[in-house]
């Protein structure tokens, strides 16, 4: 089709026939849009969203509201939005978990435990030393004090 149009353009040499009532004026353009690529990206995004929703339906979330709030807090999300009830919170938690991964709560808990363990390692601690250490310290104290 393109070659036929180019051949027709060469033969006309910029002398177009006057428009008639049977031939409509169609603007010609050399700009083409890649529809298949744009459609495939949109289709892929739509399929990913359907897959995420299917995954969200299969995620088990506790019905205990306190546990749902604790999980939301661990994920750094607000525990309650305006006008939100327990069922809405569970739905929001399920949606968040479908986006970031179901094991995100477990990973966050493990990370917090690791931080607490590291903090505990840094704290100062005391223990009783052997009797020889006590005797040495007493001798140093008596020697250094007048």
From TrEMBL:
Domain Pre-mRNA processing factor 4 (PRP4)-like, residue spans: 63-115
Region annotation Disordered: where it falls in the sequence: 1-38
Name of the gene this protein is made from: PRP4
Record flagged with keyword Cell membrane: no
Gene3D superfamilies from the UniProt entry: Pre-mRNA processing factor 4 domain (4.10.280.110)
PANTHER family: PRE-MRNA PROCESSING FACTOR 4, WD40 REPEAT PROTEIN
InterPro entries, A to Z: PRP4-like, PRP4-like_sf
GO MF: U4 snRNA binding; U6 snRNA binding
Keyword Hydrolase tagged: no
Protein name: U4/U6 small nuclear ribonucleoprotein Prp4
BP GO annotations: mRNA splicing, via spliceosome
One Pfam family named in its UniProt record: PRP4
GO annotations of cellular component type: U4/U6 x U5 tri-snRNP complex
Keywords assigned: Ribonucleoprotein
Domain of life: Eukaryota
């Amino acid at each position: 089709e393109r070659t036929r149009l180019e051949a027709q353009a060469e033969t006309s040499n910029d002398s177009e026939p006057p428009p008639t009532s049977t031939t409509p004026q169609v603007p010609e353009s050399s700009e083409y849009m890649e529809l298949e690529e744009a459609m495939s990206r949109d289709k892929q995004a739509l399929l990913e969203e359907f897959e995420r929703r299917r995954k969200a339906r299969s995620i088990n979330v506790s019905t205990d509201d306190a546990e749902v709030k604790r999980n939301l807090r661990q994920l750094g999300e607000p525990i309650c939005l305006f006008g939100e009830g327990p069922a809405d919170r569970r739905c929001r938690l399920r949606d968040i978990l479908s986006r970031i991964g179901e094991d995100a709560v477990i990973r966050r808990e493990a990370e917090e435990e690791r931080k607490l363990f590291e903090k505990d390692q840094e704290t100062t601690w005391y223990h009783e030393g052997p009797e020889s250490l006590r005797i040495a310290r007493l001798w140093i104290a008596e020697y250094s004090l007048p």
